[in-house]
Amino acid sequence: MAWRALAVTSATRAEALPDIPTIGEFVPGYEASGWQGIGVPRNTPIEIIGTLNKEIDAFLSDPRIKVRIADLGGTVFKSSPAEFAAYIADYTEQWFKIIKSAGVKLE
Question: Which of 27, 65, 76, 87 lies 20 to 30 Å from 36, alpha-carbon distance?
Answer without folding.
Answer: 27
